[in-house]
Design a protein that fits this description.
By secondary structure, the chain is mostly helical.
């Protein structure tokens, strides 16, 4: 039961990182029509994935947000899943297994942090003036399912599920 859940979480995370997460519909209030004539490129609808957002921020040289989003949206979730995979492949009777499980629990504390960071980013975009709005795409839901499934893994481990080495 545990390995299929880890696999599902890994696949969902991979898809969630590259799938469309949000679409930005720029508006400039009453002068939208004018900006569409003067600078049509700035008024184009743009869709981003989580990885796409990080790359776009890197192009803009906003290194603080690049690091924060990379750490909480990519590195922690991938690291946590790597620890789960390693834990599921060793003998749980070994003393080292408990240390690995505790490391996974520590990384698990950051599971909702990546969702929090993403939500802050979306909220900040939704508050843009002129009627600009953000539409969430299916990648956001897939990413969220990955987070939820990775939260369930340690719960099943604590309950003593024996689905590891089969």
């Amino acid at each position: 039961m545990i390995r299929p859940l880890i696999l599902a979480s890994s696949v969902l995370l991979g898809i969630g990182l590259v799938a469309p997460t949000m679409t930005i519909h720029p508006k400039a209030g009453d002068i939208t029509w004018l900006l569409e004539i003067i600078d049509p490129q700035s008024m184009e609808i743009v869709t981003y994935s989580i990885v796409g957002i990080i790359f776009e921020l890197a192009v803009m040289r906003d290194w603080f947000l690049v690091v924060v989003l990379s750490v909480f949206s990519v590195i922690f979730p991938v690291g946590k899943l790597c620890v789960f995979w390693f834990y599921s492949s060793i003998d749980q009777a070994e003393p080292k297994a408990l240390q690995i499980f505790n490391l996974a629990n520590i990384l698990g504390k950051f599971s909702m942090a990546e969702v929090f960071i993403l939500s802050l980013f979306i909220i900040s975009l939704k508050s843009l003036p002129g009627g600009t709005h953000v539409q969430l795409e299916f990648g956001c839901g897939i990413y969220f399912l990955s987070v939820i499934s990775s939260i369930l893994v340690p719960i099943f481990i604590k309950k003593g599920s024996s689905g590891f080495v089969q």
